[in-house]
Amino acid sequence: MTPFDIGLIAIGVLVLLILIGMPIGIGMLAVSCVGVLFIRNETVAIRMMTQVANDSLEEYLFAVVPLFVLMGLLVTVSGVGKDTFDVFQKMLRRITAGLGVATVFANAVFAAITGISIASATVFSRIAVPEMRRHGYTRSFSTGVVAGSSVLGMLIPPSLLMIVYAVLAEQSVGRMFLAGIGPGLLLAVAFTITILLLAWSQRSFVFEGHDDATYDDIGLVDVIRKSIPIFSLMVVVLGGLYGGFLNPTEAGAAGAFGALVIAVMRRSLDRATFWRLLVETGQITVSVLFLILAATFFSRMLALSGVPRELSELFLSGNIGPYGFLVAYIVLIVALGCLIDSISIMLIVLPIALPIADAAAFDLIWFGVITVIAVEIGLLTPPFGLSVYTIKSAMDDPDLKVGEIFRGAVPFILAMLATLAVIVVFPSIATWLAQN
C-alpha cells in the first residue's frame, strides 16, 4: 500500500472507532501511531509520539485554557448571569418580544466573560426561561431563544473553540479573538431580527397568552450596581487584551482573579464550591490538552501520508474549486454536528482541511471564524444538540420535551446559516479588526 492509501484507511478507521464509542483522543493516538508505523517504522512512530507530546504541551500559551475555564466557572456561580439579564430586561422589556431580545444581548455580554456555550445555556435556562414563561411566552420559543443565543459563547471572545482552532492552525489567539467580535455582534443582531420577525408574523409561536405579569422593577442605582462587575471584567480582560497591555494568558489570569474577587465579595463561594470548581477546571483542561496532543499527532501522520496534499490537488485543480471546497466543508461540519461534539469535530476535520484552505489562499483567521460558526450550529441540531440537552437537564421540568426545544431553535439555526453566508461573501466582517 502507498502512504496515501494508509492515510485514507486511517481516517476511515478513526471514524469507525468513534462510531462504536471509543474516546476520540485515544482513537486518534492509536490510529496515528499505527499509521506512522506502516508508513515508516516502529522507531519513527515512537519518536514522533514523544516529540508531539513535547511540542504540543510545552507552550506557555496553553496556560490560557485553565485560566479562561476557571474564569467562566467562577462567573457562573457568582450570579453575574442573572445581573446581566436583569439589566437588559430593564432596558428592553417595553419592545415586542423584549424578553427574548434581552436574553440574546445578555448572552452576548455573558459570552464576553465566559467563553463556554454550555455555561451560557445552563445559566440562562434557569434565569430567562422562567421569566419569559411568566410573561406569556411559549415554552418552545423560550427555550429556543436560550439555546440559540447560547452559541454566542463560543464566538464572542474569549472563546475556548477559538483557542483550540488557533493552536491547531498555528494562528495568533489574540487575532482570533479580535476576528470573533464582528461576526459575534452580527449574529446577535441576526438573532434579534429573527425574534422581531417571529413576534410580528408568527405570534402563536412566540406567545401563548397575554402578558399580565408584573416586572421586577429595578431603579437606575440597581442597574449601575449590577452592571459594574460585568463591565469591570470586560474592561480587564478584553481591554487589556485588545489594548496591548496583556497577552492572552495574562488576560486569562487577570480575568480569573477578577471573577474570584467578585465571587468572594458576593459570598457565593465557599471552600467546597471553590474546590469543586478547581477540580472541574483541571478535568476540562486535561481533556482539552490531551485532545490537542492527539490531534497534533494525527495531523503529522496525515502530512506524512500525503493525504492533505492529494486532496488539495483534487479540490483546487478540478471543477470544484476553492469555494466548492468551502461549501462541502461547511456541509460536512454541520452534518458532523448532528453526531459529535464541537471540539471533536474540529480535531477530526482541521488536520485535513487546513492544508487545503492554505493552498486555496484563504485567510486562516477568516476560515477559523467560519469553522466556529459551522461547528456551533451542531449544538442546536438533532439528534446530538448538546445545548438543547443541557437546557433540558438544567430546567428539570418533566413536561418539557426535547423536541420542543429543537423546534424553538430552528429559526436560530436558519439565522446562523444566513450569518455564515454573509461572512463568506464579506470576509472583512471577520478580518478587519484582526488586521489592524
TrEMBL record:
Keywords: Cell inner membrane, Cell membrane, Membrane, Transmembrane, Transmembrane helix, Transport. It is found in: Cell inner membrane. The chain crosses the membrane at residues 6-39, 60-81, 101-124, 145-168, 180-200, 228-245, 251-269, 281-303, 323-352, 364-389, 409-434. InterPro entries: DctM (IPR010656), TRAP_DctM (IPR004681). Pfam families: DctM (PF06808). One of its GO terms (cellular component) is plasma membrane. Coiled coil: none annotated. The keyword Cell inner membrane applies. It is a multi-pass membrane protein. GO terms for molecular function: transmembrane transporter activity. It comes from the Bacteria. Residues 11-429 form the TRAP C4-dicarboxylate transport system permease DctM subunit domain. Belongs to the TRAP transporter large permease family. The complex comprises the extracytoplasmic solute receptor protein and the two transmembrane proteins. Part of the tripartite ATP-independent periplasmic (TRAP) transport system. This is TRAP transporter large permease protein.
